[in-house]
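Protein 1 of 2
SEQ + STRUCT:
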Amino acid sequence: MTKSPLFGVDPWAVTQEGWDASLHEAAESIFSLGNGFFGQRAMHEETYSGHSLQGSYVAGVYYPDKTRVGWWKNGYPEYFAKVLNSTDWLDMSWSVNGHTADLALGPPTQYRRSLNLKEGVLTRQWEWITPDGIQLKVDSERWICKARPHLACIRYRISTDKACDLRWVSGLNGQVRNRDANYEEMFWKRGHEGGGPRGYVQTATAKLDFEVGVAAEHCWEFSRDRAHSLGDFVPQDWVSRQELILRLEAGDTVVLNKRVAVLSTLHAPALALQAKAMEVLDEVQSLSHEELRAEQAAAWDLLWKQADIQIEGDPKAQQGIRFNIFHLHQTYNGLDHRLNIGPKGFTGEKYGGSTYWDTEAYCIPFYLGTAPARVARQLLEYRYRQLDKAIANARKLGFKDGAALFPMVTMNGEECHNEWEITFEEIHRNGAMVYAIDQYVRYTGDRSYWWQGGLEVMVGVARFWAQRVHWSEVRKAWVMHGVTGPNEYENNVNNNWYTNYLARYCWRYTLEVMDLIRQEQPSCWNQIATQIRWSESEALDWKAKADAIALPSDEVLGIWLQQDGYLEKDQQLASELQSDQRPINQHWSWDRILRSCFIKQADVLQGMMVFEQDFSLEELRRNFEFYEPRTVHESSLSPCVHSVLAARLGMMDKAYEMYLRTSRLDLDDYNREVHEGLHITSMAGTWMSVVMGFGGLRIVDDGLALAPVLPAAWSGYAFQLHWRGADLHFRLNNQGLECLLEGMPSCTLHLYGRSVTLESGQALVIRPS
């Protein structure tokens, strides 16, 4: 299934040509901006009274909204963490001869909005004719600085074709709410405001101790010297604003250059926030708008040199991958160990802006391949620092002796997801914590993380699995009942194959790592063994359970069963569904979904991708050909898994179909929900589709292995990998594969199944056989 683009296709831009109010909330998501520390949906700068999801977000700042459920169950989290819509720093309103510019009331005669992916700049150009016949042209651009963590810049230009009176108010507005508040609560309480040459608003969360301070400075430019009235910023009731009153003549232009500093108490004490915000503005006071614009372009250029993927001959595929890489880098920068990657990033309120297992399963590979090793390690350490709370989470559910259950959703390590079938049952997330450590060590070669926190996480997870299974006399196997696998269209099932396979892997890998630490770091092992109160009886228990855990299968079909009883369902194919019933989660009752055989996202196939080395190609093919036709791909995390596996199987049409779906999921709004925000964590899966799918990236014998293949729709593609301090560049086209090494003298790779040594600076070309 292919979709028509919502917006224009361009290799380095996303552009909306013409005004369509019905697309506005979707466009607010698509054109969002961020820098890892704060971000904002692409609301109009000026007044807009139509449907709009207002959102200005600050990383790490949240509100514990009281859990809302119909029937409280023991173990439920007390709250759901909400990412907060904070002070609106666009806050602009202007009128001409008393007519307020508001595109919901007076549509423009021309409209263009464009997101420059190469430089991280959002621009708008539009024209509007007032009821009394005055034609105004507006040209604006804004960005959130990539090189300066707390600064945003706006330039807004108004031109007129006739004489008119302009009233323009701009500033900061702290009177904001969240659309998703469970009890219509106000999440903020008033702090204080400041006025004078600069505006300032500081607000505090109604719960917890977060405070956010925002400062603004204006620089006005006039095309001609006209009499005008311009006051200071005036603080009042959560706002601080400046007003300009000006008589314009025909052909006049007036420009506002607005700079904004955004900080929270993660960066400075509450009493120092205002001074710190003013310092941010002071630092750039001598720099022109053009100089800051060039600085922004240079910062993004550096990122693109590290992470860009170039696709030749397929503009939609090219735009898709760059759009995804762009938003990943807007969401997380690796500069603050307290932060992680929320599924919506800075693009919406859904999912609470919290951390999910998506980070470990999907995002870790992206950052391993495109950033220094410290970035991925920091994401691992984020979980290690929350191990005590993972143990507390497990204890609430009746587990003991150091068993750890990492949360499905969290801001600080505490579970804050309030759907029972997820909170209590979707426990495969625990295994992702261990697999991420394994990925990190194999990719970077940095074993030190094992004894510097990693093993403690692994032991906590292994202990959880050991207590979660029970012995079945009927089956003569260890079984795990009452779980939800990655396919969330099945709840409370028994022996989900993926979850059981993960548990077995966790036991065996943890014991393997213990043995290696004993050999390589005996003093570290002794310290850890004491800390975790290790007994060799646990090792025997884990080995026994790993050897005899139930892994349901069907011998006739030659497949692994998603869970006990899956084949007893009414077996249908997704292709048999009527288009007006898709997506089924927006048209069917939950009861009907649960009774159906339809799969929301890869489940068995998730495991076969993760543990690919454990299965033959024929095993993979049988399972893929059975499960993919039953998969409706209504999770953003689904298409990329199928793309990677299809490429490995040589099913290039299916791999390409799934690649387009994952790369353009939001751009083309496949799941009809982009108005709620983008699917940030699944965007890392787009990178996996290219590099691990078409590129064939694997780790084999402590080295990189690749076997790049070329989709029929592409004339070529290129990507680079950051590998153990070196940079590797690959380009594939019909003439062959070109490889280049930088940063180390030599490197041995496995290319198409044979060992090849690259020398630094010398391009190696492998011709098609």
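Protein 2 of 2
SEQ + STRUCT:
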Amino acid sequence: MLPGTGHARGHPTSKPDHVGCYRTVAALGRWRVIEFNDIGELTSPVAIAGFEGWNDAGEAASGVVNHLGIAWQATPIGAIDPEEFYDFQVNRPVIEIEGGHTKRLIWPTTRISLARAQPADGSVPPTGLSRDVILVHGIEPNMRWRAFSEDLVRSLESLGVELVILLGALLADAPHTRPVPVSVGSSNAKLASEVAGGGVSRVDYKGPTGILGVLQHTCTGAGLPTVSLWAQVPHYVAQPPSPKATLALLRGVEDILDAPLPLADLPEEARAWERGVDELAQQDSEVADYVRTLEEAKDAMDLPEASGDAIAREFERYFRRNGGAGGSSGPDRT
């Protein structure tokens, strides 16, 4: 991992006493350096991670990390050297050329940024949380997943991360007109039970996995508390963006952290997205009939929990956000 942008490859650090610094030896004797210099002490840091690719239907998961990074003006602190983990014929670097002059070359990789609860720079907005947040925005690697996960987990441990929240999204038979289903998985049964309920179900799955599954397994082996949230994106509107699914994941993170997060224009974007899909469905009778079938199935499944925990969770969210943001007229089930 390289300090700053990660656009150049680094060398073994000569300052192992810095906060969050360590180094590992890679195969063939080449160094992979993971280094976080001049960060200082962090306050009960939590990591929120999303990866583009197989785990990111509609770019809903990576959309959460992007959204929070912009809202909090998060500071880049490192990036993994992509040479070991990415096939550049699959994930090609991006070049920027202006007026015939090459401006920069951007390599596909996993980047890490920091949002502080109380930034030293007064121009940067605080997170509004009682803890610092490490944002991990990556592309699912093409190879060496175990080494990648071990490197990333060790880097999070070196920063003193106390909790890892992994975000994913999958295509499903879910109607776009209903609240986005979110499921939770955790290395800790108590943590999973605290998050589950109120529209969030527990993951029950056996089958192929992506980098999120490997990362969660690696975190568990390292004793690092981890929880994963998965949103279901309607398969008939799989193209990104999917702001309604992004919003559902963001609210799931709020439940885990028990604190409001900046939503900005995301609720309105989610409503506009739903209206747009409504209009498209109305133009095709077969699609409209299919959506109604999905709605009926979803409503029948959700009827037993239409009261109790689900309603209580919505009002908890409303009062939490109303206390911090104001101006809300009541719970919004978008």
